[in-house]
Amino acid sequence: MALPVVLADLDEFVADNEHFEFFWFPHTEATLIKCNNRLAEGAPTRALSRRRAFVQDEVFNNVIFGLTCRLGRLIPALIPRINDASAHSMGRRTYTDASYKVFVSPRRVRFVEMEYGIPVEAVHEAIAGIRRVIDEQNLRVSFPVEVRFTAADDIPLSTASGRASAYLAIHMFKGQPYEKYFRAVEDVMKDLDGRPHWGKMHYQDAESLRSRYPRFDEFIAVRDSVDPHGSFANDYLDRVLGPVADRRGRV
User: Fold this and answer.
1) What phi, psi does 34 have (nearest 5°)?
2) Cβ-based neighbour number of residue 36 at 10 Å
């Protein structure tokens, strides 16, 4: 589906599906969309045949995609054409199966990833910002940008705390330089009140994160009370949360 069509109907896609996401291929207007919904109890399943699952999930999504990423790393100028061909080579499929078979898939192509959660109403600005970064810096990006959606929750340091959220994940194939791309996209997300995925690449620290989480200091107070000596601290947690009170004079 073309990106402008997806963005124009985005509210309906999100509202009409329990799990909606799309993948935009940089340098193109092409996307792949994915809609996942629970079956009514007792409804029959219509699983993919073993052959079709193998061809699509292993051959296309791993072997061929891995080869095209390697080709793009070798000849970056080919990436726009590769992305367009990749997006249009994936056929439509509808099937039902157990959730662990639907949501879990083998990922054998190695990559580096950064993901930001933003207010759901900022998706259009975020996509435009990523496109602007790629164009202005003349980057060649072989991995699609993944965009997914979640409801708000009340967990203090959840990236969806207090707001319905969209998540935009950017990737670079292993071995390709990524920092220029990631830092420029992070600047876009910061302006949209973005919150980085805690377990993926980002360049934030406690000072920059505190203003994005209304309950940040509430969490820090609990952390300091249950781990006053920093027994569970490490360099990354000291960076993103600040050092535990008992360690502050020694860090």
Assistant:
1) -135, 125
2) 13
Sheet holding 19-24, edge to edge: 31-36, 19-24, 145-150, 165-173, 111-119, 195-196
Count of Cβ atoms closer than 10 Å to residue 33 Cβ: 17
d(CA 175, CA 8): 36
Distance CA 220, CA 240 (A): 11
Please name every residue paired with 30 in a beta bridge, in sequence order, or none if there are none: 2
Listed in sequence order, the residues at least 6 apart from 90 whose beta carbon sits closer than 8 Å to its beta carbon are: 32, 56, 60
Q: Distance between CA atoms of 122 and 166, rounded to whole angstroms?
A: 8
**169 — phi, psi (to 5°)?**
-110, 130
Q: What is residue 57's predicted lDDT score, i.e. its pLDDT?
A: 87
Residue 238 backbone dihedrals phi, psi, to 5 degrees = -60, -35
CA–CA separation, 118 and 121 (whole Å): 8
The phi and psi torsions of 91 (rounded to 5 degrees) equal -80, 160
pLDDT of residue 251: 46
- 153 SS3 class: strand
CATH of domain 3-196: 3.30.70.2520
**Helix, strand, or coil here: 112?**
strand
Q: Where along the chain do its domains lie?
A: 3-196, 206-250
The neighbour count for residue 73, using CB atoms within 10 Å, is 16
Q: What is the mean pLDDT of each run of 10 residues along the chain (251 residues)?
A: 96 97 97 95 88 88 93 95 89 89 91 98 98 97 97 96 97 96 98 97 97 95 94 95 72 46
Would you tell me how many other CB atoms lie within 10 Å of the CB of residue 155?
12
Indicate the pTM of the whole model. Answer: 0.92
